[in-house]
């Protein structure tokens, strides 16, 4: 059994300004991520955070999580400030997303409910002089617990929920994301969200070895749109590809072929699809 460390930490910031186009702020209720995907960009970024020093130097990504125990109160303070500014500047609109540097529905969320309580705060303060568009991106079926809240995002508030699905093949998932929920459970999650008439999307990224057409067929009934991205830092996972004799799937040409097949399949079904990387073919 691997050593896992969970610590309660205090943050002085709930809303982080985002450099991602179309997103104004992100909320990361946790530091670190128990799913510990081998290719995770947040692993690299977390090394520059003051919270990394709270954990032993030699602990691996996925084996620690900091619970930002005061984030709900911080969010309320920051939203009140934004609200005060908005009333001076006139109606404003913000896009706020959970989460870019962690999974908002990892195991700790079941106990600590930080994502849920932050959503409640967003619900309370939006619509009073500013319009709020909330996005959620996760790999976890735990997101279904909060359907009751998602359904309240109407009128001045809107919400979309994305599920990251990187392959159709659970054996491949086990190689790159051994501690994350199964592919089947993620597809079921999308299905249930759609049954509840929520706006959903699939984030197919990074592209892992897959049968692109099979994956598109399995999820196309449950998504409003699809985003696609390649493995961006191949050098970080090259050893994993080699150890499993799947080097063919780490080339630019593989990412191009798969994304083209996905675009073709989803487009033929009338589903909007956006590729987030430049075709290097
Ligand atoms: S679920 Fe997301 S944040 Fe967590 S390890 Fe995987 S890629 Fe990183």
Automatic annotation (TrEMBL):
Keywords: Iron, Iron-sulfur, Lyase, Metal-binding. Residues 27-206 form the Radical SAM core domain. It comes from the Bacteria. InterPro entries: MJ0683-like, rSAM. One of its GO terms (molecular function) is metal ion binding. The keyword Metal-binding applies. This is DNA repair photolyase.
